[in-house]
Write a structure and sequence with these properties.
Strand content: 5-15%
Catalytic activity: 3-methyl-2-oxobutanoate + acetyl-CoA + H2O = (2S)-2-isopropylmalate + CoA + H(+)
Radius of gyration: 25 Å
Organism: Micromonas commoda (strain RCC299 / NOUM17 / CCMP2709)
Number of helices: 14
Bound molecules: 3-methyl-2-oxobutanoic acid
Structural class: alpha/beta
Number of strands: 8
Enzyme class: transferase
Largest sheet: 8 strands, parallel, barrel
GO molecular function: 2-isopropylmalate synthase activity; metal ion binding; methylthioalkylmalate synthase activity
Helix content: 40-55%
Strand order of the largest sheet: 1-2-3-4-5-6-7-8
Pathway: Amino-acid biosynthesis; L-leucine biosynthesis; L-leucine from 3-methyl-2-oxobutanoate: step 1/4
Length: 421
């Protein structure tokens, strides 16, 4: 990654909890350390959480959800540590990230969340209660009226502690009655909520539905607040749904690095941020974020290593194959012009290939042109019959291999065949 002082970012609007003085700016709220850590099998130590939080701040994340303080003394300590440190550090563009802690809508949880985040320059409490019929009836065993009262009491209590930045989430909003959502959201805004986060908790919405939900909230809930998306990936639609939310007025997106999270995970920060970076101007009302893409790969690598959650090779943006090319036709295109098969230069996201390396992976689908180029790079500039003969022998080896043919094997092949033909 580059040195901090070399990093130039677009100016970020001043942080005001319930409004953004730039209609196009979308806040990025990272929940790798809270929802991401809820991935089965992913556990992070307090020191690892602090390292990740620092990297998220460098990446340009606006709000870091550092944990769920009531969950355990360790969680509280990790949140407090991040609030005291990262929450008071000034990052290259002069920005101090907001540090957020999650709580259910009850005093004990809210006290723990406040105890964790209050040391930060910009503390936020995020409180939630479920609003879908199935959750209210089967899980909470509460009536809708009771749920509204609990939500209002929770937000009022959080504000009474001196916290000026309070986010409210109606859990399972994706399956909640929109009219009930408007009612509870209007009530919590009245009580002092500054961000309304809309979770598709079970990842069931289609992009059109989620977009319409956000548009409906914007049109029907009075007051000054920021709308946020929180999309789970059960149907593989979390990125598409987050973008549909932005297109319909959401100005905060909640995501995690590598998309880690409960079950099939959360919207992945790198996918959402790079989609806005690539297509924001033309497609989604000129949206932009404060993310500096060059830190994406280092963050992804750190989260992968610390959490032990592997990244699938074909994962968009950060997978091992995201910038690799095996078929002959693609390799030929890449060797002539990288834009033929890459929409993002890997350096943009902080993934640096070697000089002259265009991500060509030598395997059974590789063509003559790619082999010629690889041989030249390895110091064997073969032409004509020599190249043809080497290509035939290479194909025989490549057809037997599943993981591609490495440079050492190609060198062995060319030197063992020297003088043949
Ligand atoms: O998925 C969800 O509903 C949540 C909320 C607490 C925001 O994680």
């Amino acid at each position: 990654a580059p040195k901090d002082e070399d990093v130039v970012r677009a100016p970020r609007p001043e942080y005001i909890p319930n409004k953004i003085d730039d209609l196009n700016y979308v806040r990025v709220f990272d929940t790798t350390l809270r929802d991401g850590e809820q991935s089965p099998g992913a556990t992070l130590t307090s020191k690892e959480k602090l390292d990740i939080a620092r990297n998220l701040a460098k990446l340009g994340v606006d709000i870091i959800e550092a944990g769920f303080p009531i969950a355990s003394p360790d969680d509280l300590e990790a949140v407090r540590n991040i609030a005291k440190n990262v929450g008071n550090e000034v990052y290259p563009d002069g920005y101090v990230p907001v540090i957020c802690g999650l709580s259910r809508a009850n005093k004990k949880d809210i006290d723990a969340a406040w105890e964790g985040v209050r040391h930060a320059k910009r503390p936020r409490i995020h409180t939630f209660i479920a609003t879908s019929k199935i959750h209210m009836e089967s899980k909470l065993r509460k009536t809708p009226d009771e749920v509204v009262q609990i939500a209002v009491d929770g937000v009022t209590y959080a504000r009474s502690l001196g916290c000026e930045d309070v986010e409210f989430s109606p859990e399972d909003a994706g399956r909640s009655d929109p009219e009930f959502l408007y009612r509870i959201l209007a009530a919590v805004v009245e009580a002092g909520a500054t961000t309304l986060n809309i979770p598709d908790t079970v990842g069931i919405c289609l992009p059109e539905e989620f977009g319409a939900l956000i548009a409906g909230i914007k049109a029907n809930v009075p007051g000054q607040y920021i709308i946020s998306t929180h999309c789970q990936n059960d149907l593989g639609l979390s990125t598409a749904n987050s973008l549909a939310g932005v297109a319909n007025g959401a100005r905060q997106v909640e995501c995690t690095i590598n998309g880690i999270g409960e079950r099939a995970g959360n919207a992945s920060l790198e996918e959402v941020a790079m989609s806005i970076w690539m297509r924001g101007q033309e497609k989604i009302f000129g949206a932009r974020t404060g993310i500096n893409p060059v830190y994406i790969y280092p963050c992804s690598k750190m989260v992968r290593e610390y959490s032990g959650m592997a990244v699938q090779p074909h994962k968009a943006i950060v997978g091992a194959n995201a910038f690799a090319h095996e078929s002959g036709i693609h390799q030929d295109g890449m060797l002539k012009n990288k834009l033929t098969y890459e929409i993002i230069a890997p350096e943009t996201i902080g993934y640096f290939r070697g000089e002259g390396d265009v991500g060509v992976v030598m395997g059974k689908h590789s063509g003559r042109h790619a082999l010629k180029s690889k041989l030249k790079q390895l110091g064997f500039p073969l032409e004509g019959d020599e190249l043809n003969e080497m290509f035939d022998r290479f194909k025989l080896v490549a057809e037997q291999k599943t993981g591609g043919v490495g440079d050492d094997e190609i060198i062995a092949l060319v030197t063992s065949g020297a003088g043949q033909g």
